[in-house]
From TrEMBL, chain A:
<dbReference type="GO" id="GO:0005840">
    <property type="term" value="C:ribosome"/>
</dbReference>
<dbReference type="GO" id="GO:0003723">
    <property type="term" value="F:RNA binding"/>
</dbReference>
<dbReference type="InterPro" id="IPR003256">
    <property type="entry name" value="Ribosomal_uL24"/>
</dbReference>
<dbReference type="InterPro" id="IPR014722">
    <property type="entry name" value="Rib_uL2_dom2"/>
</dbReference>
<keyword id="KW-0687">Ribonucleoprotein</keyword>
<dbReference type="GO" id="GO:1990904">
    <property type="term" value="C:ribonucleoprotein complex"/>
</dbReference>
<dbReference type="InterPro" id="IPR008991">
    <property type="entry name" value="Translation_prot_SH3-like_sf"/>
</dbReference>
<dbReference type="GO" id="GO:0003735">
    <property type="term" value="F:structural constituent of ribosome"/>
</dbReference>
<dbReference type="GO" id="GO:0006412">
    <property type="term" value="P:translation"/>
</dbReference>
From TrEMBL, chain B:
<keyword id="KW-0496">Mitochondrion</keyword>
<keyword id="KW-0689">Ribosomal protein</keyword>
<dbReference type="Pfam" id="PF06984">
    <property type="entry name" value="MRP-L47"/>
</dbReference>
<dbReference type="GO" id="GO:0003735">
    <property type="term" value="F:structural constituent of ribosome"/>
</dbReference>
<dbReference type="GO" id="GO:0005762">
    <property type="term" value="C:mitochondrial large ribosomal subunit"/>
</dbReference>
<dbReference type="InterPro" id="IPR038340">
    <property type="entry name" value="MRP-L47_sf"/>
</dbReference>
<keyword id="KW-0687">Ribonucleoprotein</keyword>
<protein>
    <recommendedName>
        <fullName>Large ribosomal subunit protein uL29m</fullName>
    </recommendedName>
</protein>
<dbReference type="InterPro" id="IPR010729">
    <property type="entry name" value="Ribosomal_uL29_mit"/>
</dbReference>
Length: 254, 256
C-alpha cells in the first residue's frame, strides 16, 4: 500500500541524487503509518493516520539514524527554511566558507541536504565527536572530526574559477541555449562539476560496472517491436498456438 | 538461512523425484550419432528458485542497476514483454521470500529497494501493454477497450470511482448486486452528515490558509533579505502586503 507525500515535506532532488534510490522506496522507508482504515462499506476509504512532520537533519530519510531521530511520538520544534527559487550548489563545487572557525577557507561540497538549504563541505567546519566513551571501563573513547552543515544562503559562496576568489553568481543562458552559472564579478562561466552525476553506486553513468543480474545495454537497446494489428493477448495466443473459437454468452456491464 | 538450507537439503535428497515429471527420457539407439540441441530455458532448480543465489545469502549488500523504464519497453515485442514479465515476477517472489526469511531470522535484508525496482518495472510493463491494447481497440472500435467505470456517490454521498463488472443478468434482475451496491440516496441523515463533512473540509482549508499566512510572516521576520519571488512561488495564496501589515510582522523592538 502506498501513500502519497502530497502535503508532506518532499525530499529534494539533489538530496536523493547521490543515494541513487527510487523515490518510491524512500517513501516506503520513511513512512510511519499508525492506523489505516480497513476496506469495507462501513469505513471511510483511504483514511490514514500517519506522521506528517519529520525532523530533517543531516541523516538521510532511508537510514536507521533518521528513524531514531524520528521515533514515534517524538516531535521537534518548528524549523523555518528560507525558500530558494533554484538550487545552485552541487556535489564537487568549490566554495568558500564565510562563517565560523574555517572562515575564508575553500573546500569541496560533499553532501547536499536540500530540505534544510544545507551543504557539508569536505573536511571543513568540523566538530570533534566522541565515540564509545565508557566510564565503567575507564575508556576515554575515540574522537572523530565531523563536518557540520552550512547554510547555502549565507554561509558559503561559490568560487570563481578564473581567480579562485569567492563571488556572487547568476543563472544565464548561453547562445547555444544552455543554462549556466555566471560569475557576477568576472563574467566567467562557473562550470557544473562532473561529479554531479556521481552516485553511491557509480562515478559516472558511462563507467557503471554491470552487475550479474543487470540486463546488458545491447539487449536493452535492441528493437524487437514490430507493429501489428492485434492486441497483446491476441499476439501471445498466436505465438503460443492457442486457438480460441468459443463464443462468449451474452453479458451485461454495470 | 534456516529455511533455505532445509529446503536446499530436501531438494538435494529428492532432486530426481521432483524433476522426473517434466523431463522426457528418450532411449538411445546404439551407434546413433548423438547431437544435443541447444536449450534456452533456465536451469531447473525446484523450490530453490524462490531463494537468491547461495553466495548472496547473509550478504550486507547486493548491488543492482535501475528499473526498466517505459521508453525501453516500447522497443520490445509482445513476446519479449511476456517473457520479461515472468522474469520480474520470479524475481519479486524471490525477493519477498528472502525478505521474509531475513525477518524470521532477525537479520538485515540487504538492499530492500530491489523490491521497489522490480515493482516499478512491472508497473511500467503493464502500462506499455495497456497502451498497445488501447491503440488497437481505438483503431478498430473507437473505444479504449478498458474496463468501464464511472465516478458516482457512495452510500455516504462521497464521490468515488465505481469499476463496472461483467454479469450474466441485466441490472434489474440481479437481486444480489442490488443488495451489495448501495449508492447515494438523498435523505435527512445523509444531508446532516454531508453538511458536517463539508464544514470540516472548509475549516481544514481555512486553517491551512491561516497557517501559511503565519508561516510567511515568520519567514519574513527571520530572513529579511529573502528572495520575494521564491516566497511568492512557494506560497501563491498568501497576500504579502497584508502579511506585512500584520502586528506579528517585525521584531520585538521599540520603533524609532
Amino acid at each position: 500500500m502506498r501513500f502519497s507525500f502530497t502535503n508532506f515535506a518532499r525530499i529534494g532532488k539533489w538530496s536523493q541524487q547521490f543515494g541513487n534510490l527510487p523515490e518510491r522506496y524512500i517513501e516506503r522507508a520513511m513512512n510511519q503509518v499508525y492506523w489505516k482504515n480497513p476496506k469495507g462499506p462501513q469505513y471511510k476509504p483511504n483514511a490514514v493516520l500517519q506522521r506528517k512532520k519529520f525532523k530533517m537533519g543531516v541523516h538521510r530519510p532511508w537510514t536507521m539514524e533518521f528513524k531514531n531521530e524520528n521515533m514515534p511520538k517524538t516531535y521537534s520544534p518548528k524549523i523555518f527554511v528560507e525558500p530558494i527559487r533554484e538550487w545552485s550548489y552541487f556535489r564537487g563545487d568549490r566554495v568558500e566558507i564565510l562563517v565560523g572557525k574555517d572562515k575564508g577557507k575553500q573546500g569541496i561540497i560533499k553532501t547536499i541536504i536540500q530540505e534544510r538549504n544545507w551543504v557539508l563541505v569536505e573536511g571543513l567546519n568540523c566538530k570533534l565527536k566522541n565515540l564509545g566513551k565508557d566510564e565503567k571501563k575507564d575508556f576515554e573513547g575515540v574522537y572523530i572530526q565531523e563536518e557540520q552543515p552550512l547554510l547555502v544562503t549565507t554561509d558559503i559562496a561559490l568560487v570563481d574559477p578564473s581567480d579562485l576568489k569567492s563571488t556572487e553568481f547568476e543563472w544565464r543562458f548561453t547562445e547555444a541555449g544552455e543554462k549556466v552559472r555566471v560569475s557576477a564579478r568576472s563574467g566567467r562561466i562557473i562550470p557544473i562539476p562532473a561529479s554531479v552525476e556521481e552516485t553511491i553506486d557509480y562515478k559516472s553513468k558511462s563507467t557503471y560496472r554491470e552487475q550479474p543480474k543487470d540486463t546488458t545495454t545491447d539487449v536493452v537497446t535492441e528493437i524487437t517491436f514490430e507493429p501489428k494489428l492485434c492486441t497483446f493477448e491476441m499476439d501471445i495466443m498466436e505465438k503460443m498456438g492457442i486457438k480460441e473459437d468459443r463464443v462468449p454468452p451474452k453479458s451485461y456491464w454495470y | 538461512m534456516g529455511t533455505a538450507n532445509k529446503i536446499f537439503n530436501i531438494c538435494k535428497l529428492f532432486g530426481n523425484l521432483t524433476v522426473q515429471g517434466s523431463v522426457k527420457t528418450v532411449p538411445l539407439k546404439p551407434f546413433s550419432i548423438v547431437t544435443r540441441s541447444i536449450s534456452t530455458s533456465p536451469p531447473l532448480k525446484d523450490l530453490m528458485e524462490f531463494f537468491d543465489q547461495k553466495d548472496k545469502w547473509g550478504g550486507i549488500e547486493v548491488k543492482t542497476g535501475r528499473a526498466w523504464n517505459k521508453e525501453e519497453m516500447r522497443l520490445k515485442s509482445n513476446t519479449d514483454l511476456h517473457k520479461l514479465w515472468y522474469i520480474l515476477l520470479k524475481e519479486r517472489n524471490m525477493l519477498l521470500t528472502m525478505e521474509q526469511d531475513a525477518k524470521d531470522q532477525v537479520r538485515l535484508f540487504p538492499n530492500p529497494e530491489r523490491l521497489d525496482k522490480v515493482e516499478i518495472s512491472m508497473e511500467n510493463l503493464e502500462a506499455v501493454v495497456r497502451e498497445r491494447n488501447k491503440a488497437y481497440h481505438q483503431l478498430e472500435t473507437g473505444e479504449t477497450g478498458e474496463r468501464p467505470g464511472k465516478v458516482t456517490k457512495n452510500a455516504f454521498g462521497l464521490n468515488y470511482y465505481y469499476k463496472m463488472s461483467e454479469y450474466p443478468l441485466p441490472k434489474h434482475m440481479n437481486k444480489k448486486w442490488q443488495q451489495k451496491y448501495r449508492f447515494f440516496k438523498h435523505d435527512k441523515d445523509n444531508e446532516a452528515f454531508l453538511l458536517k463533512y463539508r464544514e470540516k473540509l472548509y475549516l481544514n482549508k481555512k486553517r491551512q490558509k491561516a497557517r501559511n499566512f503565519n508561516h510567511v510572516i515568520g519567514l519574513l521576520n527571520r530572513f529579511p533579505n529573502m528572495d520575494i519571488a521564491a516566497l511568492k512561488q512557494q506560497y501563491p495564496d498568501v497576500d504579502l502586503e497584508k502579511a506585512k501589515r500584520s502586528r506579528k510582522y517585525g521584531g520585538h523592538f521599540v520603533p524609532k
